[in-house]
Amino acid sequence: LAQRFKRPFSWEQYCQQISSDQCQTPDETALRPPQDAAEGGSYFSGDIDHPNFRGYFNATPENDCDAYPTNCTGHIINYECKQSTFAVAQAHWLNISLK
Q: Which are the contacts of 96, defined by CB distance < 8 A and separation ≥ 6?
């Protein structure tokens, strides 16, 4: 399960760590670099049909349940507090540990 819930990269992290040219050239994940700190911290930007940043997820050692069978973890991104969601309750009742 932890392998399905990979770690999200913020837009800034993606440009700095994954993009070959710091997002100067549009690719399938980011059309451009973030314009400010708020965009840089985003996990998705733009509208659903034309996103500036689609989001990027990558497995980390924490997702490796073979190496860490008793404490491997995945990651869930939830909505901001202004919207209601059932993610935390679902994780609890499905016995999915959250960090």
A: 1, 74, 90
Closest CA to 4 of 84, 96, 99: 96
Please give the structure tokens belonging to residue 17: 């760590």
Average pLDDT of the segment spanning 68-77: 78
For residue 67, give the 3-state DSSP assignment: coil
Residues 6+ apart with CB under 8 A from 98: 73, 76, 88, 91
Strand partners for 30: 53
Contact at 8 Å (CB) between 43 and 51?
no
Residue-wise pLDDT tens digits, 21-62: 999 999 999 999 999 999 999 999 988 888 999 999 988 888
Report d(CA 77, CA 9) in Å as an integer. 11
Burial (CB count within 10 angstroms: exposed 0-12, middle 13-18, buried 19+), residue 74:
buried
